[in-house]
Amino acid sequence: MEEHRTPPADRQHLLAIYLNDHYAGATAGRARFARAARSHRGSDAGQVLARLAREVAEDKDTLLRTMRALGVEPDRRLQALGRAAEAAGALKTNGRLLRRSPLSSVVELELLHLGVLGKGAVWRALRELALTDERLDAEQLQELVHRADRQAAELEALRRSAVVEALGPGHSEGPTAVPPRAG
Questions:
Q1: What is the b/e burial string over 128-158, where b = at least 16 CB atoms within 10 angstroms of the residue's CB?
Q2: Distance in angstroms (rounded) separating the CA atoms of residues 55 and 147
Q3: pTM, rounded to two decimals
Q4: Which of the 8 DSSP states describes residue 100?
Q5: Quick one: which of 105, 96, 94, 95 has its CA closest to 162?
Q6: What is the crossing angle of helices 138-167 and 44-69, to 10°?
Q7: Helices (H), the chain
Q8: What does the pLDDT profile of the chain (183 residues) look like in tens digits?
Q9: At what angle do helices 8-39 and 102-130 cross, to 10 degrees?
Q10: Cα–Cα distance between 97 and 115 in angstroms, integer?
Q11: 70 with 23: CB under 8 angstroms?
Q12: Counting beta carbons within 10 angstroms of the beta carbon of residue 5, is it exposed (0 to 12), middle (13 to 18) or buried (19 or more)?
């Protein structure tokens, strides 16, 4: 495979796009975590989600500081798009219009998990860049990778519990088997 070197000016432009995309995701993720923590208030899951919501807010601030250290300013249009996408996603009914569906927790936790995996990916990418860019702190980025991995594991445990609660045998509100097709 032929090695391709991106010119320095293009690298900075591509880095700005990459970091702004992740920052827009962080904006949406922060709102989604806050909503999830409110939805589960008073439960064990709510306590975990409230702590994770605080951590995700801190991580978003860390990403912003990192962007600025790299000479990248946040794109306000992408932030607005991230907020709009999160708000639109909150409108999904999951089978119910007037009250929260048990499926809501499953879908919500899956989205949070995917967001944290994406956050881990940006920390890993920046950690690689830290090998040759003194503006980045490789040790701090490694800590952020570990934090994202822990957050993902906690969300996966909550998601698995929500799946059993919502979809497991004995917990459904309707038939569990698909009826045979006629004919």
A1: eebeeeeebeeeebeebbebbeebbebbeeb
A2: 9
A3: 0.80
A4: -
A5: 105
A6: 150
A7: 8-39, 44-69, 76-89, 102-130, 138-167
A8: 556 677 777 999 999 999 999 999 999 999 999 999 999 999 999 999 999 999 999 999 999 999 999 999 998 776 666 656 665 555 555 554 456 677 889 999 999 999 999 999 999 999 999 999 999 999 999 999 999 999 999 999 999 999 999 998 865 444 434 444 444
A9: 150
A10: 26
A11: no
A12: exposed
Q: Which residues contact 147 (CB under 8 A, 6 or more apart)?
A: 55, 59
Closest C-alpha to 45, from 128, 123, 112, 114: 112
Using the 8-state DSSP alphabet, how is residue 182 labeled? P
Report residue 84 CA to chain centroid gap.
15
- With tokens 């700005």, the residue in question is 16
Distances (CA, A) of 10 to 17, 54, 63, 148: 11, 35, 21, 29
How many Å apart are CA 12 and CA 93, to the nearest integer? Answer: 41
